[in-house]
Amino acid sequence: MITLGIAADHAGFDQKQLLIKDLADQHFHVIDYGAKIYDPGDDYPDIIMPLAFAISRKEVDRGIAVCGSGVGVSIAANKIKGVRAALITETYSAHQGVEHDDMNLLCLGGRVLGYALIWELVTTYLNAQYHGDERFQRRLNKVLALEEKFGSP
Q: What range defines the domain where residue 87 resides?
């Protein structure tokens, strides 16, 4: 079973709450990294970092992050070594990002996507598996080498 981490700021809080319920109904083990309460003054970097560090430390297999557009959580999370986050708005990239690039953090825009599409993207992402073919691993190794060479804050 996949252990899944989830986080959202105020702009994705309601969608996160729905996702937690729906994922639990599908028997996923979900860990909520915040926000735990709705706070219109919270900041996405503060909210995404606990989840990003959990992914980096391999405490969770994959993650889902929601902010207003999905851009902020994607940018912030990618600063952490081992996190491969992408803003996803359609199903092809939801599975291809995992299959080809070993994406481990799905970033979503709570103010720009309806919940039906969010759920479709999440289920597509969670059903995808990294292929690991030579060409995909070669490319991933180059990304990992960049991360090692240039580090992260």
A: 3-150
Please say if 27 is a catalytic residue.
Answer: no
Q: Which of 20, 15, 24, 6 is nearest to 115 (CA)?
A: 15
Whether 18 and 142 have beta carbons less than 8 Å apart is answered as: no
Domain count, the chain: 1
10, 67, 95, 107: which one is catalytic? 67
Question: Could you say which of 10, 95, 100, 107 is catalytic?
Answer: 100
Question: pTM for the complete prediction?
Answer: 0.94
Each residue of 120-150: pLDDT tens digit? 999 999 999 999 899 898 999 899 888 888 8
**107 catalytically annotated:** no
If you ran DSSP here, which 8-state letter would residue 77 be given? H
